[in-house]
Amino acid sequence: MSTKYVIVGAGAAGLGAAEAIKQADPSGEILILGDEAFGAYSRPGLAYYLTGELPEYQLKLPQLSRFSFLNARATAIDPHRKQVHLEDEKSIPYDKLLIATGSSAFQPPIPGADLEGVVKLDTLDDAREILKRARRNKCAVVIGGGITALELVEGLRARHVKTHYLLRGARYWRGVLDESESKIVEHRLKEDGVKLHYHTQTKQIIGKKGKVAGVETTAGDVINCHMVAIAVGVRPRLTLAKSAGLEIDRGILTDEYLQTSAPDIYAAGDVAQVYDPFSDRTILDTLWPTARAQGTAAGKNMAGLQQPYRKTVPFNVTRLAGLTTTIVGTVGHGEDDDLIGIARGDSETWRQLPDILEAQSNFDVNNLRIAVGEKHLVGAIIMGDQKLSRPLQVLIAEQADISSIRDALLEPEASIAEIITDYWIEWRKIHAPSNL
Amino acid sequence: MNWRQVFTRDQSRHEARVVGWVIPENIRCVQCGICSYNCPIEIDVRQHAWLGKPVQDSHCLTCGECVARCPRGVLRFERNALFENGGKGA
């Protein structure tokens, strides 16, 4: 009899798992449950839908069509009977279950946050709502930090909405970027017409007949607007895990096979809290490639291959105020005024900068910062020119021994880009297989 | 720059396009689909990126739209072995 695999969630982790299962156990029955009728789409792609670079139909991922998909919301898991309960009171039996429910925006306890016109950017429906409102409302306030807040700011600007961006502290994304990097982003936002408000906290969102009319700051100022977009971080969606009595910390705790505390139940992606060999603790991250890799690993293990998941160096390439930015390894200092917990496209590893030295090189809008450990590079931020993005990603992930260039890198006026480039050319000759 | 250099630069740019193909690096890719959307002959570049396979479609014009528009630097041109010896055949 064939094994029944049920996957809750049609994101990167869910699709990765389904494909891995299909390969490892071709006779298995795979069912993917998803609570969005649209099916599978790229969550990061929503940012480009907002800016108008992508039409809605293009977001749809064809990978899902290879599997049985049921548009239904799972409400509970019974680990003893091995069943998933659905909202319509039906139940689905499973032999192996994957929870890949992702994360959702944290709703801060701001008075007025339930008014019509307060939006977030979790799902396609959220993006549709923002676009609908952007056609009517010509002024908006964005609250929060990290990548999602900028996705909102840039999306609104692209739709010609006058945008106020409120920052609680002195600068943008203090937990990951250094001061000059924040300045670069802020400068570009201002050039694009965004009004930045520093040291500004929201006291309440003012309503009129149940709709947003403005934002009152703790300093007593009032900004009139009809839309408030909030991105202060995300939380793993833990309802199902709680119903099954799984062990939970910030996310669902998994072992190195992505298995949860219950037999035959696995977790992957944003919802899972997974062991990280770099920091020797279990961490959350909200990165698409990580979610897919975890899904793939979970799928293999569900199909009985027994392969441990090895977390790799966190890595993301994103666009900050129109500037392509690579963030790899450990680069930040941990504190952030605008985020609670973790944001989308984020990794807790980025904010655990140990006592290491940093070297930097600036030119125009291109900015390169590396974090230099005792023998290895431990992190890098590359803004603008991306030529060194791949070399640095590989050198950090492979823990290349940089003893020979370490002193040169740490010279005050060091030409970091050149030193790294020369080192990479030599390193690649010796270490890299042909695919690097 | 004199006029000869203008032509040399143009020639090398065209050469890069003719002798190269598009290679994705799937760890950067978030499957947004901007590449496929901008392909003038509707090659599903995104699917290649998901599978980590070069765009070996014989119809690919190597026009560079997908490479240039990818917001995350997933795609790059790489010289392939088909047209070695300066494009005079293998």
Structural class of chain A: alpha/beta
CATH fold description of chain B = Alpha-Beta Plaits
Task: Identify the quaternary structure here.
Answer: heterodimer
Low-confidence stretches of chain B: 86-90
Globally, the shape of chain B reads: globular
Total number of helical segments of chain B? 4
Overall mean pLDDT score of chain A?
Answer: 91
- What is the succession of H and E elements of chain B? HEHHHE
Unreliably modeled segments of chain A: none
Q: Do you know the CATH architecture of chain B?
A: 2-Layer Sandwich
Describe the strand arrangement of the main beta sheet of chain A, using strand numbers: 3-2-1-7-19
Q: Quick one: biggest sheet of chain B?
A: 2 strands, antiparallel
**Biggest contact:** A-B, 27 and 20 residues
Number of domains of chain B: 1
Class from helix and strand fractions of chain B? alpha+beta
Strands of chain A, total number: 26
Helix content of chain A: 25-40%
Helix and strand arrangement:
The complex is a heterodimer of chains A (436) and B (90).
Chain A (H helix, E strand, L loop, with lengths): L3 E5 L3 H13 L4 E6 L11 H6 L4 H4 L8 E4 L2 E5 L4 E4 L4 E3 L2 E4 L3 E3 L12 E2 L4 H13 L2 E6 L1 H13 L3 E5 L12 H13 L3 E3 L4 E7 L2 E7 L4 E3 L2 E5 L2 E3 L2 H5 L8 E2 L11 E3 L4 E5 L4 E3 L4 H15 L12 E6 L2 E7 L27 E7 L2 E7 L4 E7 L5 H9 L5 H8 L5 H16 L5
Helix pairs in contact in A: 1-8
Chain B lengths: L2 H17 E5 L9 H5 L6 H7 L13 H5 L5 E5 L11
Antiparallel strand pairs in B: 1-2
Describe it.
The complex is a heterodimer of chains A (436) and B (90). With 436 residues, chain A is α/β, with parallel strands linked by helices. Chain A has helices at 12-24, 46-51, 56-59, 124-136, 146-158, 179-191, 239-243, 288-302, 389-397, 403-410, 416-431, and strands at residues 4-8, 29-34, 68-71, 74-78, 83-86, 91-93, 96-99, 103-105, 118-119, 139-144, 162-166, 195-197, 202-208, 211-217, 222-224, 227-231, 234-236, 252-253, 265-267, 272-276, 281-283, 315-320, 323-329, 357-363, 366-372, 377-383. In chain A, the strands form 7 sheets. Chain A has a 5-stranded parallel β-sheet with strand order 3-2-1-7-19, with helices on one face. A 5-stranded parallel β-sheet of chain A has the order 9-16-10-11-12, covered by helices on one side. In chain A, strand 1 (4-8), helix 1 and strand 2 form a beta-alpha-beta unit. The mean pLDDT of chain A is 91. Chain B is of the alpha+beta class. Chain B has a two-stranded antiparallel ribbon. The chains are: A alpha/beta (436), B alpha+beta (90).
